[in-house]
Amino acid sequence: MSDLSAYRNEFPVLNQRTYLISASLGPLSVRSRRLAEEHLDLWQRLGPEELWGEHGLPRLERCRRQFAELIGADPSEIAIVPSVSSGLSSLATCLDFEKRPKVVLTDMDFPTNHYVWRAHERRGAKLDVVPSPDRIRVEAGDVVDRIDDQTPIVNVNRVLFESSWIMDLPPIIEAAHDNGAYVVVDDFHGAGVVPIDVHELGIDFLLAGVLKWLCGGQGLAFLYCRSDLIEKLDPLVVGWFGTMEPFNFDRSGLRLRGDAGRFETGTYALPQAWTASGGLEIILEVGVEAIRKRSQELTSYVVDKAQEAGLELLSPGHAERRGGLVRMRVPGGMEGAKRILRQLFDRDVVLDQRGDALRISPHFFNTEDEIDRCFEELVKLV
Ligand SMILES: Cc1ncc(COP(=O)(O)O)c(C=O)c1O
Questions:
Q1: How many domains in the chain?
Q2: Average pLDDT, the chain
Q3: Does residue 27 lie within any of the structural domains?
Q4: What average pLDDT does this structure show over 14-28?
């Protein structure tokens, strides 16, 4: 068993509650809180040039470097965006759907992905949605079969948000590239919990936010863009921070940055850079390989407990195919699941609910004892 228990002191919520839902909201660390307070102290004292120039923007650059390190990218390939939805939306504006209308995605991808591509139906995009055979997995081969020379881009969620199934990316990337199509990976449920190297995999674009597994808080996400593609992309969503010299206040033309920063627009949610850098620092310090190992131990333990409790598992049984969360059906349909969730909150067990199922997502700092405590309460309620 891996021992990462020293990090438990970083997360005060663990002293008060059985917190098992980092797939939805990573808990606040002592480090991020101290950094958030540092920002407030600076804001109280400083003017804009000092606050932003000497502290805020360098802090944001630090987040950029940290995320680049996490996914094996160069910092110049990372744009800071307010959300996965907005980063994906900007990227979508760069594509021409007239010659290649067919966007391939799956019916297990997060709905925001669907909404972004649907918005481009008015520009000629046509969605080709690959169905899951069982609402748990999507086979890479089924995605590959849809990719052809009409496809501009394939949208894949590396780890499916409902079931936690890990998609097999290499055949999808290979088929996309053979057909002259791009691949955009929504990695919100992968980054920080399942190792990845974007260069090794040859991924074109990847998005993730700091909210969940990265324990960084809300309002900050990243768009990775492969270096050789950057200057070929001209987003229709722009702003001064995406230009070469924002502080020249030059209105004579639009000169977008030569790096992925061209996807950046207006004033950043800078306070979030402080909390985000704290979360990212912890994840990098522990290391995603070590996190993955511990996560597999813990999710396997959850699977065993669910089976003992007679609950139907709605996630992969094999640890290698499963990301950081385990989903299980509970009695009483959606209303039953909502009721049980509320009752668990009253007992200080924090999970979340999707449809008629509960999701349990231990992070590296959780323990088997916490999972035992969760199931002790859960079996009384089902
Ligand atoms: C896989 C995935 N993509 C995207 C989102 C939404 O991201 P955002 O709110 O940053 O647009 C979520 C949110 O839970 C998600 O799970």
A1: 2
A2: 97
A3: no
A4: 98
